[in-house]
Write a structure and sequence with these properties.
10 helices; five-stranded mixed β-sheet; globular; single chain; Nucleotidyltransferase, domain 5; alpha/beta
């Protein structure tokens, strides 16, 4: 079964053709990161306009790269939430129009389920059940994936998501946007024990607001004293605090559920320290760890087409009144 996936939930406009949820025939992404970097973060109105300009381009290119026509496509999958409402509406509108014009089934996809499904593309042998940490700019979830479409959230952020904290801290210490990869790079040159930043204890959930505030206060105090800001040391100490909590909570949940498989997903899953610390913890606990290649960690349409395939197999389709749901729940 060949699925056309469309993704436009934030600042990437993407389209992809994926066969049977696992085999990638094409993967096209138009990123707006450079555009938004001058503002220190994503500007929703600009993102929406860019999606309008690029959505048909990425779809046409995805079909051309896969060497297929509309007649070869079995269904169209699209991210309907969560995300920026204006951005989501562009992808949803395009998908609904094509589904109607081409007489194809329309599949609504939850963006978080899409991130999880990136692992199915990267690892053909991977099957549920397993625990998955989904960490990105908008989400920090520990998800128990019981089946391809049946999932339960075991822990989530109570305030800032991990990726959001990375972006805000990067801005405060002068690294700019996008914060994740820039903090990761700076941290490699710094001392992770230079500053003792807090690790929130919130049971099964996450909380990064206090950590972010601690970094901001540290920087402001140093600025008021006229001291030079040790950017690399702050980045390393902050990153260490985030990673310890993400790894610790996820490993703990794996023990509670009794699974021997852990997956990572989302933009923060590309963080080098997070990967290495998970590898150490997984080896110690005798767990099998999966994480997708960097391209499939950030927003893409491959993951949406993959998730769409499993949703379609479960009978989940939408009519032409499908809307965008910016606060769509995973469950």
């Amino acid at each position: 079964m060949l699925i056309l996936g469309i993704e436009s939930s934030c600042d990437e406009t993407a389209a992809s053709l994926v066969k049977d949820g696992r085999e990638v025939l094409s993967d096209v992404i138009y990123s707006q990161a450079e555009i938004h970097s001058k503002y220190g973060g994503v500007v929703p109105e600009i993102a929406s306009r860019r999606h309008i300009e690029k959505v048909l381009y990425v779809i046409d290119k995805a079909l051309a790269d896969a060497n297929v026509t509309k007649d070869d496509i079995d269904a169209i999958a699209v991210t309907c939430g969560p995300g920026l409402v204006g951005a989501l509406l562009v992808g949803v509108s395009a998908a609904k129009s094509l589904a109607l014009a081409w007489d194809k089934p329309l599949i609504p996809v939850n963006h978080i389920k899409g991130h999880i499904s990136a692992n199915y593309v990267a690892f053909k042998e991977l099957e549920p059940p397993f625990i998955c940490l989904v960490a990105s700019g908008g989400h920090s979830h520990i998800v128990y994936v019981k089946d391809y479409t049946d999932m339960k959230v075991l822990g989530a952020t109570r305030d800032d998501a991990a990726g959001e904290a990375f972006d805000k801290v990067a801005r405060v210490i002068g690294l700019g946007y996008p914060g994740g990869p820039k903090v990761d790079a700076a941290a490699k040159l710094g001392n992770p024990e230079a500053f003792s930043f807090p690790r929130a204890k919130t049971g099964d959930d996450f909380s990064f607001s206090g950590l972010k505030t601690a970094v901001i206060n540290t920087v402001h105090k140093m600025e008021q004293k006229g001291e030079e800001i040790p950017v690399n040391d702050i980045a390393a100490s902050f990153q260490q605090a985030v990673v310890e909590v993400l790894v610790g909570n996820t490993i703990n949940q794996a023990g509670k559920v009794g699974t021997d498989k852990i997956c990572l997903a989302g933009g923060v899953a590309s963080n080098s320290l997070l990967r290495s610390e998970f590898e150490k913890a997984a080896k110690e606990k005798k767990l099998t760890l999966y994480y997708p290649p960097l391209r499939y960690c950030t927003d893409n349409a491959v993951m949406i087409a993959s998730a769409g395939y499993f949703a379609y197999k479960a009978g989940d389709t939408a009519s032409s009144d499908l809307n965008a749901y910016p606060a769509l729940s995973l469950e």
